[in-house]
């Protein structure tokens, strides 16, 4: 399986058009639009209050925007507005073709159920009924995210933060989604643990040809993982382009400020 | 009043006179007022129309506390008619305190004929067992249910479980079974074992032993379930598919005993363990008292029927 | 002459530093073409914008004005200044190589895997592809005299010269039709410099086009099929705005 982005693909895998969202008086998201193509990794960076989480939640159908559309290319099908789908269709999508890695792993895992069950749940939900195969698949994925497969029966509450994040990734990727959303996946983790996680994300993204939208405030994470970057400020997209270009040749005053503020170790 | 049209054979045995109760004239027939019965019947119709689906209903205050079978009693009270013959069992026995009290309640409020014989009954209210003897199309069995939601332990939010049922998202049920196998080497659930009804809804069959689950499948009788505290009614219509959940390589299995029933010699029925002395001596006897008795009688005569066989563990 | 691989037309670049309130003009009206088999060496003192020009071609920087066209036989020319990100990424992955002065070290990745990575885009990521890519990477590392005992280590602790050689291997292991070389031999000794010169010669002989900056005149002389003096494209410095 190569990660070549087929240029003859007719449509983007995700398209956001004119997204707006208000919370009372505050405009959290203003006229956000972009396209994402299969295999592309897009970083959404911005400081607190920039609207990046609001945008992510709109894209992942977790929160309906006030106006605008989010279209997703269904497997073998055309771009479809996700908010015109039924709840059932969206939930199925969220379990199969999409992944969502939460900032806090407890939000993305069942903490009272074993690691193996966490990884296997999506498969069970899709009708997999062979215990042996489920277990084998879970072991395989635990190894891929560098968790000792011997811990397959352990509860996530006995895992470290980094391990829980990796378990979350395995739980999401087991159904081979084509699009993965990540909300600050490395925040709160020790630096060495972050490195391991980022490396894993980088490799898996490439190997599986995943399209990915990563919200982060850490520019280094964006540079390492993302092909493209969107910079947000006060609800608006102020700059967009190739990651290295936005970081090395920032055009917008805010982007310049952001880039120059980052400490270089 | 629900009137079951049938040609019935008169019951062979009516309980002793000390249990005969005078009908209490202060209550409506079967205690509940007619409007309540109508409401419950509507719920029952809906439940029958959607096998395995939990229908909310306006559970009434009954003269016994929650946890003592108020749901089952309300269902029975809504379907019982003057010509019905009622059997009430608790853990398979007709003569426990619960069974006696519930039976007495219906005698006082309906004056219907009562029986301990499964074959003679038209209505059977049960707590935690299905009679060993096969039921017929003329019979209704009514289960007392404590917790109607099969996923309650895993997902306590009702809003979420309603969505899961509505969308047929049952991965969570299998997660529970998976955990059992991972932890114990086998599925640890031995009662209230979840089933898939009519290939659509996952249902809690009430705390009957899993031994009884196969009896629910394609049963000629109408099976009704009432949960009073949780205010839910559900149903399995006659001849409906009821499959116990499991994995391909860890399929559903019923319990087996090494010894036969001490009293009647049956190897096909669910056995209770009875401790006989302080040295730990034990015997196994049929849980279904009516069945055991008829088996003992057939030892003399050869006309007594045998229990319907459940799924056998190979 | 055959269709040029690269064509720059009226390319200008100025940096607008909003927070310092100033504009830095660097390049003005750059025009030239490069054909397959050519190695164009950019001449000029420091600050003339040589590095900037390479970065503009690589789309690491945005032009302020002008057009940069990349043409590959059998395909329509790609306007790099307005191309969509995915086209640019595709062009970088398959066609345009950039050898920078500095190796960007990715934590935890071994030298061998770092060099093998560009090949995996085409070969895939299965076991067989990985093995093949690593073998090929080994050949390059050997050629650039990186001892085998270092191959399994991440290059973070290598010397500047070693890092640069790893960088070159990674950037050149996959044949590309356009090579952008930014001081590739800056931190190398004479022996390794010659190896790199040979590698560049081989790439060009294979049909690549190259644009390069070499601080060492002699090296430049060995490689250049043509030289361009950057003073021609110098911008007039404006006063702070």
The total strand number of chain C stands at: 9
How much is the radius of gyration of chain B in Å? 20 Å
| Quaternary structure | heterotrimer
Uncertain residue ranges of chain B? 1-18, 309-314
Separation, N- and C-terminal Cα atoms of chain C: 44 Å
* Rg estimate of chain C, integer Å: 18 Å
Name the shape of chain B in a single word. Answer: globular
Largest interface: A-C, 30 and 28 residues
Mean pLDDT of chain C: 88
Structural class of chain B: alpha/beta
Runs of chain C with pLDDT <50, length 5+? none
The helix fraction of chain C, in percent, is: 25-40%
Q: Describe the biggest sheet of chain C?
A: 5 strands, parallel
How many strands, which pairing sense, and closed or not: the largest β-sheet of chain B? 7 strands, mixed
Shape of chain C: globular
- In N-to-C order, the SSE pattern of chain C is EEEHEEHEHHHEHEHE
**N-to-C CA distance of chain B:** 46 Å
In DSSP terms (H or I, runs of 4 or more residues), the helix count of chain C works out at: 7
Structure characteristics:
heterotrimer; A: 265 residues; alpha/beta; 4-stranded antiparallel sheet; disordered N terminus; B: 314 residues; 7-stranded mixed sheet; 3-stranded antiparallel sheet; 12 strands; disordered C terminus
Describe this protein's structure.
The complex is a heterotrimer of chains A (265), B (314) and C (241). With 265 residues, chain A is of the alpha/beta class. Chain A has helices at residues 52-59, 87-96, 105-108, 115-125, 131-144, 161-173, 191-208, 219-225, 243-248, 253-261, and strands at residues 14-23, 26-36, 41-46, 67-73, 79-81, 98-101, 179-183, 211-216, 228-233, 236-242. Mean pLDDT of chain A is 90; it is low at 1-6. Chain B is of the alpha/beta class. The longest helix of chain B is centred in the first third of the chain and has 16 residues, at 34-49. Chain C is an alpha/beta fold. In chain C, 35% of the residues lie in helices and 23% in strands. Chain C has 7 helices and 9 strands. Chain C has helices spanning 50-57, 85-94, 111-123, 127-143, 160-172, 190-205, 217-223; strands at 6-17, 22-34, 39-43, 65-70, 78-79, 96-99, 178-182, 209-213, 226-229. The termini of chain C are far apart. The chains are: A alpha/beta (265), B alpha/beta (314), C alpha/beta (241). Chain A binds chain C through residues 1-5, 7, 37, 40, 195-196, 198-199, 202, 206-207, 224, 227-228, 241-242, 244-245, 248-249, 251-253, 256-257, 260, and chain C through 15-19, 55, 59-62, 85-90, 93, 106-109, 120-126.
């Amino acid at each position: 399986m190569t990660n070549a982005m087929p240029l003859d693909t007719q449509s983007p895998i995700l398209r956001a058009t004119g997204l707006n969202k208000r919370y009372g008086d505050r405009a959290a998201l203003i006229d956000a639009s972009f396209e994402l193509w299969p295999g592309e990794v897009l970083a959404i960076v911005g400081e607190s209050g920039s609207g990046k989480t609001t945008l992510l939640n709109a894209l992942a159908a977790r929160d309906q925007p006030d106006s605008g559309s989010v279209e997703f290319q269904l497997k073998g099908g055309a771009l479809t507005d996700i908010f015109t789908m039924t709840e059932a269709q969206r939930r199925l999508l969220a379990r199969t073709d999409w992944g969502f890695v939460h900032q806090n792993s407890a939000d993305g895992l069942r903490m009272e159920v074993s690691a193996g069950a966490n990884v296997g749940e999506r498969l069970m939900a899709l009708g997999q009924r062979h215990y042996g195969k489920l277990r084998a698949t879970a072991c395989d994925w635990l190894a891929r995210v560098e968790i000792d497969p011997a811990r397959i029966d352990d509860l996530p509450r006995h895992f470290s933060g980094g391990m829980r994040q990796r378990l979350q990734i395995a739980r999401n990727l087991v159904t081979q989604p084509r699009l993965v959303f990540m909300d600050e996946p490395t925040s709160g983790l020790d630096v060495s643990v972050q490195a391991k996680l980022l490396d894993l994300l980088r490799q898996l993204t490439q190997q599986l040809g995943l399209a990915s939208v990563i919200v982060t405030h850490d520019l280094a994470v964006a540079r390492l993982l993302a092909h493209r970057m969107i910079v947000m400020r006060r609800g608006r997209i102020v700059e967009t382009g190739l990651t290295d270009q936005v970081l090395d040749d920032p055009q917008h005053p805010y982007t310049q400020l952001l880039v120059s503020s980052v400490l270089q170790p | 009043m629900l009137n079951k049209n049938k040609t019935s054979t008169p019951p062979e045995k009516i309980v002793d006179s000390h249990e005969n109760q005078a009908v209490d004239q202060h209550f409506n027939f079967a205690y509940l007022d007619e409007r309540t019965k109508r409401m419950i019947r509507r719920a029952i119709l809906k439940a029958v129309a959607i096998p395995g689906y939990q229908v909310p209903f306006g559970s009434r205050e009954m003269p016994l506390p929650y946890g003592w079978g108020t749901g089952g009693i309300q269902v029975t009270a809504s379907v019982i008619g003057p010509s019905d013959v009622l059997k009430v069992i608790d853990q398979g026995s007709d003569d426990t305190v619960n069974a006696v009290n519930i039976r007495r309640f219906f005698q006082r409020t309906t004056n219907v004929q009562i029986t301990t014989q499964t074959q003679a009954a038209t209505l059977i209210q049960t707590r935690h067992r299905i009679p060993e003897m096969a039921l017929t199309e003329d019979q209704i069995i009514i289960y007392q249910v404590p917790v109607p939601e099969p996923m309650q332990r895993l997902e306590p939010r009702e809003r979420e479980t309603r969505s899961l049922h509505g969308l047929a998202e049952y991965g969570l049920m299998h997660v529970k079974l998976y955990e059992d196998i991972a932890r114990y080497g086998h599925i640890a659930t031995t009662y209230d074992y979840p089933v898939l009804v009519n290939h659509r809804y996952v249902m809690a069959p009430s705390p009957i032993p899993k031994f009884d689950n196969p009896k629910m499948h394609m049963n000629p009788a109408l099976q009704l379930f009432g949960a009073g505290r949780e205010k839910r009614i559900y149903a399995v219509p006659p001849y409906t598919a009821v499959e116990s959940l499991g994995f391909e390589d860890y399929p559903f299995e019923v319990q087996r005993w090494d010894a036969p029933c001490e009293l009647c010699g049956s190897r096909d029925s669910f056995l209770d363990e009875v401790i006989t002395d302080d040295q730990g001596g034990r015997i196994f006897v049929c849980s279904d008292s009516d069945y055991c008795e008829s088996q003992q009688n057939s030892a003399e005569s050869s006309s007594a029927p045998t229990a319907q066989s459940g799924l056998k563990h190979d | 002459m055959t269709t040029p691989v690269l064509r720059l037309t009226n390319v200008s670049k100025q940096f607008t530093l909003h927070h310092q309130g100033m504009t830095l003009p660097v390049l003005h009206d750059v025009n030239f073409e490069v054909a397959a088999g050519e190695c164009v060496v950019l001449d000029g003192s420091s600050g003339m914008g040589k590095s900037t020009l390479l970065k503009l071609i690589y789309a690491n920087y945005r032009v302020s004005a002008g057009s940069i066209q990349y043409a590959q036989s059998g395909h329509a020319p790609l306007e790099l200044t307005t191309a969509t990100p995915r086209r640019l990424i595709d062009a970088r992955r398959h066609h345009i190589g950039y050898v920078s002065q500095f190796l960007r070290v990715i934590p935890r990745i071994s030298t061998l895997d770092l060099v093998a990575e560009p090949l995996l885009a085409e070969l895939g990521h299965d076991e067989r592809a990985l093995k093949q890519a690593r073998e090929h990477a080994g050949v390059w590392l050997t050629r650039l005299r990186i001892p085998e005992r270092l191959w399994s280590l991440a290059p973070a602790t290598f010397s500047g010269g070693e890092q640069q050689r790893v960088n070159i291997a990674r950037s050149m292991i996959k044949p590309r039709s356009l090579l952008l070389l930014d001081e590739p031999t800056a931190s190398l000794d004479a022996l390794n410099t010659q190896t790199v010169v040979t590698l560049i010669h081989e790439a060009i002989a294979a049909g690549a086009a190259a644009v390069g900056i070499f601080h060492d005149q002699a090296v430049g002389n060995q490689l250049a099929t043509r030289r361009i003096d950057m003073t021609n494209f110098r911008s007039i410095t404006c006063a702070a705005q």
